[in-house]
Specification:
Layout: E1 7-13, H1 20-24, E2 35-48, E3 51-56, E4 62-68, E5 71-74, H2 106-115, E6 118-124, H3 133-136, H4 141-159, E7 167-168, H5 178-189, E8 195-197, H6 216-224, E9 228-232, H7 248-253, H8 257-267, H9 271-274, E10 280-283, H10 290-304, H11 318-325, E11 326-330, H12 334-338, H13 340-343, E12 348-350, H14 364-371, H15 377-391
Parallel strand pairs: 1-6, 6-7, 8-9, 9-10, 10-11, 11-12
Antiparallel strand pairs: 2-3, 2-4, 4-5
Helix pairs in contact: 5-6
């Protein structure tokens, strides 16, 4: 059997080291910037999209917490889960001392990626949330912008800087201002960054819709600089919950729901007509749902375009824009792999989700071999590596 290609993972996560903003913020902001405090924890409940309800107890288990304005973000084991047994990956408070160093140390991360048959890893934020929502919600816009830029400088220069290309930079944006966001895209593209976080459903964050035209400066900058817009599940800070008393397992099973809604939004938005070279990526959403969404979108376009407002703006079947402009992503999705011809083999990418509970680390090569058994060498290369190289504009083979 031909050796499996080395994997480029398009969705992993960095647990920001304790010094991040105190090192990378300009001095005048550091006393108001995010900092780590060790606190006793009472109860924690996940309410969706990286947000939690929590209480504190001086006598409770200790956790290292990000403290910023009125936010206290508690480090938890299910977010920094690698190294623990499956049944130990609980919503348990934890300190940096209890984490595997690869969660927060770039040198250790590269070692863990190498162990995992991975030589490229795109990492989403943790404390800023999946598209930098934390800083978008900051009342002091000057401070928020400084925190965004500080994170991006950390990401490019510290997290990825000495990794030999194994760690691939992914930046966040000041989402309250599309012109500022466009400028940040261009600032980072000038130093080789071609990936940016964005919300799957920006209106859920109180931001303009993609239909409004207000994001056009950002979309134009991304198209101009070959910067891919990456939308992680939960980047709307909400989940597809069915009821307040449903177990978290319900929302976890439906985690692809926002990706599906977001993609329908984009396919009928005409933005992929207006910006024909723009690239989108759906991170951690899996791919098994894609064939039916594309079929349904094409059916709506074919049968209902006269009254649904898209006859004049979307001249081709929506599935054609998907296959030209959009990438899907999976880590465990046998149905999706079986449906690869319906999806489009050139649009499928792979991930390891290190260090979350979903992570396939350190068995990712075995998982990939099992999922891709029976595929041609060309198909394996595209899914595990080649499509990610195109998606992220990487200079490698």
């Amino acid at each position: 059997m031909t050796e499996l290609p080395k994997i480029i993972s398009v969705d992993d996560h960095v647990v920001e080291p304790a010094h991040t903003w105190q090192t990378w913020l300009p001095a005048k902001f550091r006393d108001r910037g995010p900092r780590i405090e060790r606190r006793g924890i009472g109860e924690i409940k996940h309410v969706g999209g990286g947000k939690y309800q929590q209480t504190f107890d001086p006598d409770g288990p200790k956790a290292d917490c990000w403290v910023f304005e009125d936010i206290v973000y508690i480090h938890k084991r299910h977010v920094a889960a690698v190294g623990y047994d499956r049944d130990e990956m609980t919503m348990t408070p934890m300190t940096y001392d209890e984490m595997r160093p690869g969660c927060y140390d770039p040198k250790a991360r590269v070692e863990d990626m190498t162990l995992n048959w991975v030589d490229g890893s795109l990492c989403f934020p943790s404390f800023p949330r999946f598209c930098g929502e934390t800083f978008t919600e900051t009342a002091d816009r000057e401070l928020g912008l400084a925190c965004v830029r500080a994170y991006n400088d950390f990401m490019v220069e510290e997290w990825c800087g000495d990794s030999g290309g194994v760690l691939i930079p992914l930046i966040i944006l000041p989402l309250w201002d599309a012109e500022l966001a466009a400028a940040e895209v261009r600032r980072n593209a000038a130093r080789g960054v071609h990936a940016v976080c964005f919300s799957e459903l920006p209106t859920a964050l109180g931001l303009p819709s993609i239909h409004s035209g207000q994001w056009d400066p950002l979309f134009a900058a991304c198209e101009e600089t070959a910067t891919t817009i990456n939308m992680h599940i939960g980047s709307s800070s909400r989940e597809a919950a069915t009821s307040a008393d449903a177990p978290d397992a319900v929302a976890a099973a439906l985690s692809f729901n926002n990706s599906m809604a977001s993609m329908a939004d984009w396919l009928f938005s005409a933005k992929l007509v207006q910006f024909p070279a723009l690239r989108l990526a759906y991170s951690e959403g899996q791919i098994g749902w894609l064939p039916y969404l594309l079929e349904r979108a094409d059916t709506v376009w074919e049968e209902h375009r006269a009254w649904t407002g898209v006859r004049a703006t979307v001249p081709e079947p929506p599935s054609s824009y998907y296959r030209r402009n959009i990438f899907g992503c999976f880590f465990r999705d046998l149905h999706g792999v079986r449906s690869r011809d319906d999806i489009g083999i050139d649009t499928i990418t792979f991930e390891t989700d290190y260090p979350h509970t979903d992570s396939t680390w350190p068995h990712t090569k075995k998982v990939a071999e099992e999922h891709l058994a029976g595929l041609t060498d060309e198909e394996k290369y595209k899914i595990l590596r080649g499509n990610a190289i195109r998606m992220l504009n990487l200079d490698r083979v």
